[in-house]
Amino acid sequence: MNKKEKTILDEIISSIPNPINSKISLLQKVQARFEYLKEEHMKYIAKSIGTSYTDIYGIATFYSYFNLYPAGRHTILICEGTSCHVKGGQRIRKKLKDMLGIDIKETTPDKRFSLKSIRCLGCCGISPVIMVDKETFGRVKPTALEDILSKFK
Amino acid sequence: MKIQKLSDLEEIGKIGEKTLRRGKPQLIFGLGTCGIASGGAPLKDFAVEYLRKTKTDAGISIVGCIGLCYVEPLVDVKLPGKPRVTYRDMTVEKLKRVIDEHLIGGRPVKEYALAQLAGELSVNVNCPLESTTPYEGIPTYQELPFFLKQLRIVLRNCGVINPDSLEEYVARGGYKSAFKALHEMKPEEVIEVVKSSGLRGRGGAGFPTGLKWQFARNAKGDKKYIICNADEGDPGAYMNRAVLEGDPHTVIEGMVIGAYAIGASEGYLYVRAEYPLAVKTLEKSIKDAEKYGLLGENILGSNFSFKLNIMEGAGAFVCGEETALMASIEGKRGEPHPRPPFPAEAGLFGKPTNINNVESWNTVPIIIEKGAAWYSSIGTKGTKGTKVFSLVGKINRSGLVEIPFGTTVKDVIYEIGGGAQNNRAFKAVQTGGPSGGCIPPEHLDVGIDYENLKALGAIVGSGGMVVMDEDTCMVDVAKYFLGFTTEESCGQCTLCRVGLRRLLDVLDRISTGEGKESDIDTLNHLAIQVRDGSLCALGGTAPNPVLTTLSYFRNEYEEHIKQKKCIASVCATLFDAPCQNTCPAGTNVPGYIQLIRDGKYQKAYELNLEDNPFPSICGRVCEHPCEGRCQRGQFDEPIAIRELKRFCVDKTLEKKGKPSITKLKPNNKQVAIVGGGPSGLSAAYFLTKLGYSTTIFESSGKLGGMMRWAIPKYRLPHRVLDNDIKNILDIGVKVRLGCIIGKDVTFSELAEKYDVLYLAVGAQLDQKLGLEGENLPGMMPGLKFLHDVNNGVKPHIGNSIVIIGGGNVAVDVARTAKRLGCEKVTMCYRREKEDMPAYTEECDAAWEEGINFHFLVAPEKVIEKDGRAVGVVFKKMKIGNYDKWGRRTPLPTEQTIEVMADTIVTAIGQVVDQKFIDTIGHEFATSRGTIKVDKYNQRTTNLKVYAGGDAATGPASVIDAISQGKNAARSIDKMLSGEDGFIELKKKSKIKYSMKLPDNEKKMIRQKPSELLAKERVCSFDEVVQCMDARCAKKEAERCFRCDIMSKEAKE
């Protein structure tokens, strides 16, 4: 960990009034800045706010939003909610896996896409649904996936 | 400026009113997450650009979700003084036209319009939607089935106001209640009002809100908290999101009132991270509220101060549980704690805390405004008010629906939702997400409230209602939910952590064909233990989907275990192609379609014969359940599987080809088959292929059963039937015609002489009307009519004929009568056209041929004259409510109608001839008069006697009868030889076909065979539907996706 990263982490920690009681928000900010939670960063944060690495690691692994590995430039979230499931969400999942050549929780070799599944995006009225970065797509057909992904370089 | 007096509030309200009641034309866009995901944003961008280009002076408003998800993206147009018109399924092209013609030109585009708002839709009375004269030809929202039963309280502003505008919220009455509470009421009074209203927590548990507030108020502590649980994690539920994105201030105001009542000085809005737009909207709303003095110090000029924070979740379903949620706010792992102590005593950071759901907080201001008595007048005795439900899944009209408690599930599914999509059969509705259960058709009549749903094993929960149809596998549903809860379990409790995983393992085995007979008991037993032994509601309710699916759909579990069959074609390991899996006979559809594509017609015919001895018949009259499940149907249109089947047979016969049929070595066992119809012939065929010596005993002079006697020749020429029968006779099946059991040979003789008997006598008698005079001359049973005609005997029917009934037999009689020269042919059916059980294509053909129809008439009396029936008095029926199966119940009116005719035919159903039951003995019969058999092996109560076809099932289709014969042959073989000869037979099959995945994902129209024109065909019994030509057949075969190849590859 270089000095620049240390400075950024210090900034983030001091931007939170009571970091020991706001560990989740703290880690969310760190991930927003560095894209994922690196081990050395987590260790530094633990020391700085006065807790153990185990504590921070325990939180990072409990909540599915935290990535402990570098993600691709774009994250594809496949919704596996009930409505998406009964309306063919599995076909979307399979097509994406085939198209990208990776499994869920993996990143393409060219680091363009990461694939994740998520339990419900709350767009059940227009299922099946996927989300790429912060954009949501509804009524997705397997044949439409090429077009959707082509927008994300 | 800080709002301190009522007049300040009113001033802000006036600003809001100005934007709500703009004096110029408006375009309104719903841009909640769903609106955007449906493509709403590019529409708005286009509109902005187009208005600028055309220099149109119109405003653009953004509103939240109105709940009409099934027709998104929506765009609304409002001209001053005119109703607001909602346009559905909008595209840029359509929007351009709407802007030109309606916004600028002043004339609504009716064909794009869904409905119009000609007045206020919700219970809100402040700055209501303008009351205007509706445009003609466009239904009002109140007239839409989707809105008919809705009562919009929670959703009072959604889709009406700009969610980012606090001013518009105030115009609609916002923060008046907070003002009233803070200045005119004591905290205890506020609590009393909430108590008397009967409001129960909308998060799922349904605990009385007022009481909960009371506990928190009474608790001792220097600092108290309130929390809004906006961690809407239930898959299928998104009603909280709609409120947070569309009308966020209702929640903030509710929390201000609640904090005041309880004495809390700080609060948290815990929003799940998966709702980024909601988080953004709330952040802005809180800032605005603080700016106006509605949050922070001295709210609304009172002594009360309250700070509201937002916390974003991080993706853990368990954090919806209140103690886990509080742990999460404290920055810890979201692990639930035992209660007591309850949050009201010691909650967040150890302080007294009150947690409520988004909808609960949202409802508080309107209860304060309109009073507890008003609220408690809505709903049922035990559950007051309304609830927003998300009606999603396989439903025609999906979206957010707010209904008073007490509305029946049936009304939600059929009246509001329009029933299951694509004419698939409704199977169940899952309520309450992973904590809930499924409700099958039998229980749809229940009025929705907390107690009623609990009694069924389901819950109201978050309000998610996921509709499932016949293509949903209930074992897979249980597995799906358990997959979810297993992952989301925090892991503290062994029974939850390990128990759920073990339940999932069992379900996994069952869904991959490795289920054991003991598994059902294991699931029940373990599910109950997990339910009772878990600390929090996640583990406590996770077994519910298993328990309810086992309770209502046990047959599906049994089929998966005993037959390794997934009837819904979902559990991928258990089948290759859904068409083949759906065919009762298991015909290798992709195989023969590939062979047709490659020009190998005879091989295609032979491949059919491996599973079904009657391909030319099924190729003409089968109701093709395979096509209903064809995956191509999701892309453009299903493959014409039936027509292709007929094609390969006809082409082979044209070239005088003789199909070769594989057989095993003969053994010395003998089987007698009673009945030479489709089921008996099929059983004889397969048993002979398996090596048995079979003899068919047929009471009439010819083989064929209903195929010969009931199906008219214009649908099934007899030369075609005779050809199929010849194939069966040629492999060595013996026949005794004109042989009646009990007369020419006794039942016990048969039982003695043969190793096994198969009874397939069908259901060949017409069901009686039960009316006096039904045996008079002039009355005729439908099957007898068809039998005579097929036998070459022309019945005297005169010039006019009336047929009572709506099934295939009735339509066959009608079309036959037309061909016999009868001028006036009328069908009389007691329900409506779309309810007729006859094939749609048959009904349409009858219509084209000039047959008349009376719908909604039920026979009441036979009109007699001189000892002859000359007509029927029918009671006119009217449409009643939906029954549990989605059909409207016909109800009698006072009116009658007399229909006179030379001949009256009854065709209301078929029954098994009870004389046969008398012959074999009533110990063989069910209470319905059919032969009692084991569902899986088709054995009767006598170990040597099997039965199948209509005689066992009651009237069913020809493919059902054929598959029953095949299944019985298999069971008999297993019983007699101890092995499964079908596996041997499959090995002997030498038919190979290409396994190359086709590249055909471009739209191609479905090929149609030609038909004789209606005017020509009514003069003869010539076959109406023609065979496809080779070019069309090849094109059609090329459309097949070869789901079997994809499936095989996936399994590897």
What is the gist of this entry?
The complex is a heterodimer of chains A (153) and B (1052). Chain A has 153 residues and is α+β, with helices and mostly antiparallel strands.
What does this entry look like structurally?
- The complex is a heterodimer of chains A (153) and B (1052).
- Chain A is built from 7 helices and 4 strands, in the order H-H-H-H-E-H-H-E-E-E-H.
- Chain A has 153 residues and is an alpha+beta fold.
- The two termini of chain A are 29 Å apart.
- Chain A has 2 domains: 3-62, Orthogonal Bundle (Arc Repressor Mutant, subunit A), CATH 1.10.10; 74-150, Glutaredoxin, CATH 3.40.30.10.
- In chain A, strands 2-1-3-4 form a 4-stranded mixed β-sheet, covered by helices on one side.
- Chain B has 1052 residues and is of the alpha/beta class.
- Helices cover 39% and strands 15% of the residues of chain B.
- Chain B has a 5-stranded mixed β-sheet with strand order 2-1-3-4-5, covered by helices on one side.
- Chain B starts with 5 loop residues before the first helix and ends with a helix.
- At the A-B interface, helix 2, helix 4 and helix 5 of A face helix 2, strand 10, strand 14 and helix 18 of B.
What is the first-to-last residue Cα distance of chain B?
68 Å
- Helix coverage percent of chain B: 25-40%
Mean pLDDT of chain A: 91
- How many strands, what sense, and barrel or not for the largest sheet of chain A? 4 strands, mixed
Q: Classify the beta-strand content of chain A into a percent band.
A: 5-15%
What is the 3D shape of chain B? globular
Q: Terminal Cα separation of chain A, in Å?
A: 29 Å
State the share of residues found in helices of chain A, binned by percent.
40-55%
CATH class of the largest domain in chain A: Alpha Beta
User: Low-confidence spans of chain A: pLDDT under 50, at least 5 residues?
Assistant: none
**Protein chains sharing the most extensive interface:** A-B, 44 and 57 residues
Strand order of the largest sheet of chain A: 2-1-3-4
The CATH superfamily of the largest domain in chain A is identified as Glutaredoxin
Low-confidence stretches of chain B: none
DSSP summary, beta strand count of chain B = 29
Q: What's the number of domains of chain A? A: 2
| Oligomeric state, counting identical vs distinct chains | heterodimer
